[in-house]
Amino acid sequence: MTRTLSEMGWKDGLIHLLQTKGRATAPQRGRRKPVSERTVDKRADVLFRAFRQLEALGYRIRTLDGFKRKHVEVLARHWEQEGLSASTIQNNLSSLRTLAAWMGKEEMVGRSSEFVSDPIRVRRKTNATYDHSWSAAGVDVEAVLQMASAMDAYVGMQLRLCHAFCLRREEAVMFRPRRADKGSYIDVEDGTKGGRHRVVQIRTEYQRRVLDEAKAFVKGVNGHVGDPERDLKGALRRFSYVMEKCGATKSGLGVTAHGLRHQGLNDLFEEIAGVPSPIRTSNPREVLSHADPEKVEYARAVVSETAGHARLSITGSYIGGLAGRDREPSPAEKRYMAHWTRFFELHGRSLLTETEKQEKARLRKILRLDEDKGDAPGHEELPTPAGSDEVNLAAGGA
Predict the structure, then answer these.
(1) pLDDT for 330-349, tens place per residue?
(2) In angstroms, what is the C-alpha Rg of the chain?
(3) Res. 279: pLDDT tops 90
(4) pLDDT at 254
(5) What are phi and psi of 31, to 5 degrees?
(6) pLDDT at position 105, please?
């Protein structure tokens, strides 16, 4: 005979609900879709931790029927006092809201702002506040990739795919290169966030080379670049371990593997728009005022598509807000921005002295403008001012 929630302890009740309702989500745009196993695991972690925190705070709940709105308020205040980030508090409250819905108490957990003393504490900052790219942190990307490959060939290949195609960690681990290669683009399907399939255009020779290396790395059309002796969780743990050993952590070099995704998406925006991404300049409004608005919008659309997001506004999470940033840049970022500002100043002049030409050549190297971008379709260089004695950037002038 099946027991009801009122007859189960809260632990058994949570296990029961996670097993019977954990894979379903609320209707979105008129349809329901299952959530990923990763989301189920995270939701379970949040819920079990929340009930243990309630016990530690002196609230002993025997069954889920005893879980009330006052307990949500206690937890939210506790998380606020602990100094958790806005996104973490919101995610935690979202899991409690889902639990309440499973229990038939949809109205119990309202808006997140109702449960904290300061609504700003649960206001997400959707726009990036600093450049997460490895180059912005002064990290030698190739050196780290080689180090990772020397430690673990599988992780090394996964990192190269992250770098070349802006893949997330799980997407790279599960990537099937032979099946994904469609000639002019790749099909990204396995491991995507929310199960959203997307297409990433092959725009450079580097991308084609990495894809061909990945195809040679696996066996069979369905072969993936993850270690066949590890399951997905084991492969992800190994990925994180190698990153830590290579120093690619926030506490090490100041970067994460996700920073390679930011790197590629910011570079992609700059390649198409012809100007620095907003997060890479101190005055985005001024820089963008000199850009072609249609190119900027197209660049944002391509970044959104490449990242696998449906909303154009999500590009701000990678390239920054078009109106500017709300955080003071770091000294390294200020230097990088100053290089861009000075380069555009020199590039806008009709005549340059020999010293200025040498300075411009040095800035080209610092800003990686001389790197081979391959025969990327739709790629356009910065326009050379009329009457200038400078050759076009595409021709490799100083």
Answers:
(1) 667 667 667 766 776 787 67
(2) 25
(3) no
(4) 80
(5) -140, 155
(6) 87
Per-residue model confidence as pLDDT tens digits over 177-232: 999 999 999 999 898 877 788 899 999 999 999 999 999 999 888 999 999 999 99
C-alpha span between 328 and 347 (Å, rounded)? 27
CATH class of 5-122: mainly alpha
Percent of the chain with pLDDT over 70: 81
pLDDT(27) > 60:
no
For the chain, the three-class secondary structure string (H helix, E strand, C coil) is CCCCHHHCCHHHHHHHHHHHHCCCCCCECCECCCCCHHHHHHHHHHHHHHHHHHHHCCCCCCCHHHCCHHHHHHHHHHHHHHCCCHHHHHHHHHHHHHHHHHCCCCCCCCCHHHHCCCHHHHCCCCCCCCCCCCHHHCCCHHHHHHHHHHHCHHHHHHHHHHHHHCCCHHHHHCCCHHHHECCCEEEECCCCHHHCCEEEECCCHHHHHHHHHHHHHCCCCCCCCCCCCCCHHHHHHHHHHHHHHCCCCCCCCCCCCHHHHHHHHHHHHHHHHCCCCHHHCCCHHHHHHCCCHHHHHHHHHHHHHHHCCCCHHHHHHHHCCCCCCCCCCCHHHHHHHHHHHHHHHHHCCCCCCHHHHHHHHHHHHHCCCCCCCCCCCCCCCCCCCCCCCCCCHHHCCC
One-letter amino acid at 3 equals R
Please determine, for residue 360, whether its predicted confidence score (pLDDT) is greater than 90: no
